[in-house]
Amino acid sequence: MPLLDPPTLRVMTFNVLHDSVRSPLRPWAIRRPHVMETIREGEAGIVCLQEVSPRQLDDFARDLPEYEIMPGGETGGTILKGWAVLTRAPARFVLGEFFDRGERCPILVRRGLGRCVDTGWTRLEANRTDFATPHLVNWVRIELPTGRTIGVYNTHLALVRGRTRGAPRDLLDVIDRQWNGDLQVLAGDFNALPSGPVLRALTTRAENGPPPFADTWDQSESRTGGNGTFHWGLSLPGPRLDYILIRPSCRVMRTTVARRGFGRNQASDHIAVTSELRPGEPSAGARRQPWPWPG
After folding, report:
1. How do beta strands 220-224 and 251-257 pair?
2. Which of 139, 174, 228, 245 could hold 213 in an S-S bridge, CB 3.0 to 4.6 Å?
3. pLDDT, mean of residues 191-220
């Protein structure tokens, strides 16, 4: 009898906040156990993290031995040109090491899920502005016991206006080249609203190209948590900036916005999002009604 695909696949995306960035949150040493507990409670097979420093990467390896870590590359430091050079001193004060070295966007794969047959990362250099942090996409291809593969892509896109047009195009150029009809998952902090140009570009079919991505938030049969994923480090209502996209569309059982890490136990200024997928089943259809905060 042939093997069946795993009945469910849980995918998490979580911007953990780089440990050198100044924010209203407490230091990484205090936030660290809350971040790890958030990941454990999600019970995801695949975890996409953003804003990870070299020290934090080592901490994830020590604290989460149940995962194999695909670290990817480092984005490199912030680029200042023209008038923006005048902001160098305050930017370095706020961003710390992130200003000079950037971040990593590692992918964590739960041991036993499948075999990681290929991994890599690519910088996304289009449309640099006077003030920009470089982008990258980190990716891994996982072979399931059935022989089918899952392609997972993790990225963190900048908030700066002017880069929102080039980044989706660069992302799709990388991901489309690896399209083979099997499930692809694109996750990360997009710093974009659901109705904005970044999401429209990624979820719109290109002529003669692979199918568009679908937002698991819209596809979920049930959802738990709030309507926003960024709370300013102050437990305040904020926008949805963090996404899990899939193609081809499949059944999404539920999407959960983590509730851990508020008050004095904040894990990050972002909230982890987890979607539970059934890759072998067709989508049950989109749900687009708004949610109240906090839900």
Report:
1. parallel
2. 245
3. 91
For residue 58, give the DSSP letter. H
Greater confidence (188 vs 288) lies with 188
239/91 Cα distance (integer angstroms): 24
Those residues with Cβ within 8 angstroms of residue 74's Cβ, 6 or more apart along the chain or in another chain: 101, 102, 103, 104
Judge contact between 22 and 96, C-beta under 8 A. Answer: yes
| pLDDT computed for residue 221 by the predictor | 95
Tell me how far apart the alpha carbons of residues 5 and 44 are, in angstroms, rounded to a whole number: 16
- Other Cβ atoms within 10 Å of 177 Cβ, number: 9
Write down the pTM of the prediction: 0.91
Q: Which residues contact 245 (CB under 8 A, 6 or more apart)?
A: 185, 186, 187, 202, 203, 213, 214, 215, 216
Kindly report the backbone phi and psi dihedral angles of residue 55, in degrees, each rounded to the nearest multiple of 5, phi listed first.
-65, -40
